[in-house]
């Protein structure tokens, strides 16, 4: 067969490609080999270099609790479920970084509300996994940081109309969630079961307990989402409380801070929120930023009602 110039270049390209792959594989092998301890366990170098390191498997903590209740890591599947969620969140780099940044703004405010209602502080991590601390709407139309359904929101005394939807207010939604959590604890007597019920519902968890003659979340066979739910909370809790342990080096100056606000009490209808914002020395964008519960460009105030509108200082 006659060797053409194009054939020659194609063969040359393949040789170069395989040479490049072999070179990089050897580099990775040398880096990994130099990082093996005497007991054969991989240890990541203390300082990063320009070498491309292989992915690292992070340690699962020996002991961990949720709301003061021990997690039985001696059960193999419990250990592996926590291990899975830890590794997933460790490698969701940008998502986890932004979670930690937003948490600095919102968690102190939520902690105060949880404390007021006697709810364990670990529940502050629920909205992190529910919504990434964003006012999102789920495919099932659950809304806001705490992902509250319309029917549930009304049962928890949130106002939900075309103009006002308090599920979008992170702090009022936290108050509503506390009502649910207290009621669920009265039913189950276990904070871990309370957390699982926030995902599946009290009725769903009760049926699972009755059908399987089990009382512990860790002993129940559940749908995939609920089976992962508490472990997702535990993973975010662990990474948030020990970020350096899991490779997250975040400059404190990069964290998002609580923004200074003032409040205006409104007792009369506002026909145009754009004009209202301008009159208050701000603009419509910032008005909506700090009051996402305002769903239209107007606000109807019925007799005897009043609203507090947050405005930037």
From TrEMBL:
It holds the Pfam family SLT. Keywords: Membrane, Transmembrane, Transmembrane helix. Residues 120-218 form the Transglycosylase SLT domain. The chain crosses the membrane at residues 6-23. It comes from the Bacteria. SUPFAM superfamilies: Lysozyme-like. This is Transglycosylase SLT domain-containing protein. It comes from Chryseolinea lacunae. The lineage of its organism: Bacteria, Pseudomonadati, Bacteroidota, Cytophagia, Cytophagales.
């Amino acid at each position: 067969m006659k060797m053409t110039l194009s054939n020659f270049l194609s063969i040359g390209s393949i040789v170069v490609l395989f040479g490049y792959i072999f070179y990089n594989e050897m580099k990775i092998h040398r880096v990994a080999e130099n990082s093996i301890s005497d007991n054969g366990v991989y240890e990541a170098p203390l300082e990063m270099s320009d070498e491309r390191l292989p992915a690292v498997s992070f340690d699962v903590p020996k002991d961990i609790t949720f709301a003061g209740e021990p997690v039985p890591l001696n059960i193999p599947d419990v250990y592996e479920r926590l291990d899975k969620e830890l590794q997933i969140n460790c490698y969701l780099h940008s998502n986890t970084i932004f979670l930690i940044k937003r948490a600095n703004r919102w968690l102190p405010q939520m902690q105060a509300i949880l404390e007021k209602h006697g709810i364990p502080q670990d529940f502050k991590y629920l909205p992190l996994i529910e919504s990434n601390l964003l006012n999102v709407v789920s495919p099932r139309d659950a809304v806001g940081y705490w992902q509250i359904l319309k029917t549930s929101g009304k049962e928890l005394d949130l106002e939900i109309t075309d103009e006002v939807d308090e599920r979008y207010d992170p702090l009022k939604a936290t108050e509503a969630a506390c009502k649910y959590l207290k009621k669920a604890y009265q039913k189950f007597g276990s904070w871990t079961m309370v957390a699982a019920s926030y995902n599946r519902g009290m009725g769903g968890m009760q049926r699972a307990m009755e059908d399987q003659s089990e009382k512990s979340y860790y002993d129940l066979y559940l749908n995939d989402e609920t089976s992962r739910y508490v472990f997702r909370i535990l993973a975010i809790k662990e990474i948030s409380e020990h970020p350096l342990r899991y490779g997250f080096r975040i400059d404190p100056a990069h964290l998002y801070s609580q923004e200074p606000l003032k409040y205006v009490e409104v007792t009369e209808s506002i026909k145009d929120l754009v004009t209202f914002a301008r009159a208050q020395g701000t603009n419509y964008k910032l008005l909506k930023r700090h009051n996402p519960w305002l769903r239209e460009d107007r606000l109807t105030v019925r007799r005897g009602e009043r609203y507090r509108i947050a405005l930037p200082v």
